[in-house]
């Protein structure tokens, strides 16, 4: 039985038995019980929590209480009075919270994770006992269980809204974004005091527009799924503009369902791949990160035939990722979505600059973290990371000793700052390998330098940064995962203009002069800029269209598996009841 239906049934039971009076206040039906004294409920709660923060496990109605460390603090501050049941034992606040929990799926969460079945069961049992033998027959322990389990549900649901259900660092050792901790107890008190449960939970939910628009997209996709979703297409032949084919009718219908083809097709031209259909295909390809050519080939068919259930799952996963982020990204920041191969520079909520980027290939994937850009280097040296040195350069060097000089790479004895430079011809390179390579390789500034003319530095544990590149051809690719982890920029000069825009010493023409120089130069930022490297495979763009990307690093797969693991209903050892 749903929570809404249960609420109606419970109220009717008690009204029929003559135990309740009703009043309409703000459209809500208030239930006034004359049952057990509130003092008995208060004592029952205190008995449940006897032992304070030393309690190791607690369950109510067979449900494991997750907030075992926080519950004693929540109730001790109010002398163990219930939070969701008032002095007259009214259930209005309890029902408001139960209703909010029942709508947890709107955020891509699962109501069953927050005791909804136990809450429904307790409400039903309380109403059944009151209707059968009077409210005095309802045990104070039942009221206490209801209040405790509601409080635990709020704390658990609130923590998941504020920071996510899964800790990303348990999934990925290269995911290091730490959101600011939410004050759940203050939110709990605010919700219980005012009765505005939805308002209190909304304060915990991410305030980013990207979260709210994706949340709305989830609702749209679920409505679409309820109406049958979209058809799967046969992929036996490539379709091109101008083709007349029976498969075009199915393609047009598929594109109409998702709004890519705005006008409904007519039967007399349903088989023609006309200009409108081509525009719709291009729009679909753009929304899915494909090569935008208007041709329906294997890659486009693959995206067209992803079922709506999988797209719903993808949106749910990315809502979780939004909950991992800091709630304040900054008023002026740089955001890189590695799954989209795209960078945006944002100021006061407006995207002032956008460009393509090249990100790490799956074997050397770009990490996820937030840091502060503090300086940039013009005409940089490239200290070759040891992984790249032994996996990429050493094999070439072992075949041809001149490889280093052809790339402008010099050899130093070790990684100490004052390590002496050595002549590569004096080294027996055949004797070195991945587990024995003490040398530091450094590439001088110049046309072959892997970092190009400029790199943007935001110190981090991964030694990852943004930089120019001499290899410009890769930016023409739709999928751009070719680097060794760092982010290569399509327009580094434009990004330099953005980060230095608030410093009058660096007008565009002055920076251009620096680029023409050959000497290495460090430019420190007047105001550090937050940089957020993210991994989002679904989002809503500025036009309101849902964008999807391939899971190039298999992170969707790992997260889906983690979210599918239900929390236990029973504590592992001692059950306090």
What's the helix and strand layout?
Elements: H1 3-17, E1 24-25, E2 28-29, H2 38-48, E3 59-60, E4 63-64, H3 71-76, H4 92-102, H5 116-133, H6 140-163, E5 175-176, H7 184-194, H8 197-204, H9 209-226, H10 246-257, H11 275-287, H12 298-304, H13 308-324, E6 332-337, E7 342-347, E8 350-360, E9 368-378, E10 382-383, H14 386-399, H15 403-406, E11 409-412, E12 421-422, E13 440-443, E14 454-457, E15 466-467, E16 481-483, E17 487-489, H16 492-499, H17 508-516, E18 521-534, E19 538-540, E20 546-548, H18 555-563
Parallel strand pairs: 5-9, 6-18, 8-16, 15-17
Antiparallel strand pairs: 1-2, 3-4, 6-7, 7-8, 8-17, 9-14, 9-18, 10-13, 11-12, 11-13, 14-15, 19-20
Helix pairs in contact: 1-5, 2-6, 4-6, 5-6, 6-7, 7-8, 9-13, 13-18
Gyration radius, rounded: 30 Å
Cα distance, first to last residue? 26 Å
Low-confidence stretches: 1-35, 568-577
Helix content: 25-40%
Query: Assembly state here?
Result: single chain
- Strand arrangement, largest sheet? 6-7-8-17-15-14-9-18
Main sheet overview: 8 strands, mixed, barrel
Strand fraction band?
15-25%
Report the total helices. 18
Write down how many β-strands occur, each being a DSSP E stretch of 2 or more residues: 20
The average pLDDT value, as a whole number, equals 86
Cα shape: globular
- Structural class assignment: alpha+beta
Describe the structure.
The protein has helices spanning 3-17, 38-48, 71-76, 92-102, 116-133, 140-163, 184-194, 197-204, 209-226, 246-257, 275-287, 298-304, 308-324, 386-399, 403-406, 492-499, 508-516, 555-563, and strands at residues 24-25, 28-29, 59-60, 63-64, 175-176, 332-337, 342-347, 350-360, 368-378, 382-383, 409-412, 421-422, 440-443, 454-457, 466-467, 481-483, 487-489, 521-534, 538-540, 546-548. The chain has 577 residues and is of the alpha+beta class. It has an eight-stranded mixed barrel with strand order 6-7-8-17-15-14-9-18. β1 (24-25) and β2 form a beta hairpin. The protein is globular, with a radius of gyration of 30 Å. Residues 1-35 and 568-577 have low confidence and may be disordered.
């Amino acid at each position: 039985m749903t929570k809404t239906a249960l609420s109606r049934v419970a109220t009717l039971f008690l009204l029929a038995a003559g135990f309740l009076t009703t009043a309409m206040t703000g459209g809500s039906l208030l239930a006034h019980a004359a049952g057990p004294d509130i003092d008995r409920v208060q004592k029952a709660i205190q008995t449940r929590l006897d032992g304070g923060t030393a309690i190791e496990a607690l369950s109510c109605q067979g449900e494991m209480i997750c907030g075992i460390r926080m519950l004693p603090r929540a109730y001790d501050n109010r002398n163990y009075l219930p939070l969701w049941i008032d002095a007259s034992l009214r259930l209005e606040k309890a029902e408001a919270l139960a209703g909010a929990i029942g709508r947890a799926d709107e955020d891509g969460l699962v109501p069953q994770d927050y005791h909804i079945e136990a809450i429904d069961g307790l409400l039903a049992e309380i109403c059944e006992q009151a209707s059968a033998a009077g409210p005095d027959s309802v045990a104070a322990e039942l009221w206490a269980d209801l209040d405790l389990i509601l409080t635990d549900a709020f704390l658990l649901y609130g923590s998941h809204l504020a920071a996510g259900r899964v800790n990303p660092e348990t999934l990925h050792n290269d995911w290091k974004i730490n959101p600011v901790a939410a004050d759940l107890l203050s939110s709990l008190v605010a919700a219980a005091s005012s009765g505005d449960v939805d308002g209190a939970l909304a304060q915990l939910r991410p305030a980013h527009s990207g979260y709210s628009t994706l949340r709305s997209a989830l609702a749209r996709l679920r409505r679409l799924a309820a109406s049958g979703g979209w058809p799967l297409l046969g992929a036996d032949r490539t379709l091109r503009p101008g083709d007349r084919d029976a498969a075009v009718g199915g393609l047009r219908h598929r594109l109409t369902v998702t709004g890519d083809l705005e006008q409904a097709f007519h039967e007399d031209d349903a088989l023609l791949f006309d200009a409108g259909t081509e525009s719709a295909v291009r729009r679909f390809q753009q929304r899915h990160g494909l090569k935008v050519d208007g041709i329906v080939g294997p890659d486009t068919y693959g995206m067209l035939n992803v079922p709506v259930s999988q797209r719903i799952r993808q949106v749910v996963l990315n809502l979780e990722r939004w909950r991992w982020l800091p709630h304040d990204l900054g008023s002026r920041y740089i955001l890189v979505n590695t799954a989209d191969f795209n960078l945006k520079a944002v100021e006061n909520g407006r995207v002032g600059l956008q460009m393509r980027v090249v990100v790490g290939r799956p074997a050397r994937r770009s990490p996820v973290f937030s840091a502060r850009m503090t300086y940039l280097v013009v005409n940089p040296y490239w200290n070759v990371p040891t992984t790249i040195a032994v996996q990429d350069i050493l094999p070439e060097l072992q075949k041809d000793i001149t490889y280093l000089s052809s790339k402008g790479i010099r050899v130093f004895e070790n990684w100490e700052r004052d390590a002496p430079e050595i002549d590569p011809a004096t080294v027996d390179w055949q004797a070195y390998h991945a587990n024995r390579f003490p040398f530091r390789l450094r590439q001088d500034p110049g046309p072959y330098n892997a970092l190009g003319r400029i790199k943007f530095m935001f110190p981090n544990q991964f030694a990852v940064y943004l930089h120019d590149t001499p290899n410009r051809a890769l930016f023409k690719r739709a999928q751009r995962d070719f680097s060794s982890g760092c982010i290569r920029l399509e327009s580094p000069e434009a990004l330099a203009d953005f980060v230095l825009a608030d410093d009058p010493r660096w007008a565009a023409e002055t920076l251009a002069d620096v680029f023409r120089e050959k000497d290495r130069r460090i430019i420190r930022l007047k105001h550090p800029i937050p940089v957020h490297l993210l991994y989002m495979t679904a989002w809503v763009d500025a036009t309101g269209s849902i964008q999807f990307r391939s899971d190039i690093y298999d992170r969707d797969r790992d997260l889906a598996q983690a979210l599918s693991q239900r929390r236990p209903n029973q504590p592992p050892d001692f059950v306090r009841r």
